[in-house]
Amino acid sequence: MQKKTDRAICAAPCVLANAGILEGKHVTHIPSTENRLGNFAYEGEIVVEHL
Questions:
Q1: Mean pLDDT computed over 11-23
Q2: What is the distance between the alpha carbons of residues 3 and 23, in angstroms, rounded to a whole number?
Q3: Residue 37: inside a domain, yes or no?
Q4: The pLDDT of residue 37 is above 70
Q5: Is residue 17 part of a domain?
Q6: CA-closest candidate to residue 21, choices 45, 46, 2, 38
Q7: Distance from the Cα of residue 11 to its chain's centroid
Q8: Does residue 20 form part of some domain?
Q9: How many domains are there within the chain?
Q10: Which of 16, 18, 37, 39 is most exposed, with minimal Cβ within 10 Å?
Q11: Is the pLDDT of residue 8 over 70?
Q12: 22: left (phi over 0), alpha (psi -120 to 50) or beta
């Protein structure tokens, strides 16, 4: 099975969240979008690696 990587910048994680792509994943985002992402494992880091 091939591993997939999802990447997004700025407010784009909101689009991925709305599409259900972030379900069960660790994410990072800009603080102003935190209330629009839903219930995800937010990491306060610049880059998050979740394999």
A1: 81
A2: 16
A3: yes
A4: no
A5: yes
A6: 38
A7: 10
A8: yes
A9: 1
A10: 39
A11: yes
A12: alpha
Size of the chain, expressed as the number of residues it contains? 51
As a whole number, mean pLDDT of residues 22-32 equals 74
In this structure, which amino acid lies at residue 26?
H
Is 6 a member of any domain?
no
pLDDT for the residue numbered 30 = 73
Spell 1-26 as b/e; 16+ CB within 10 A means b: eeeeeeebeeeebbebbeeeebeeee
Amino acid 40 reads: F
Residue 16 has pLDDT above 80, yes or no: yes
DSSP H helices in the chain: 12-18
Q: Which neighbouring-strand residues pair with 27? A: 42
Taking CA 29 as the corner, what is the angle to CA 26 and CA 32, rounded to the nearest 5 degrees?
135
Q: Give residue 33's domain range.
A: 12-42
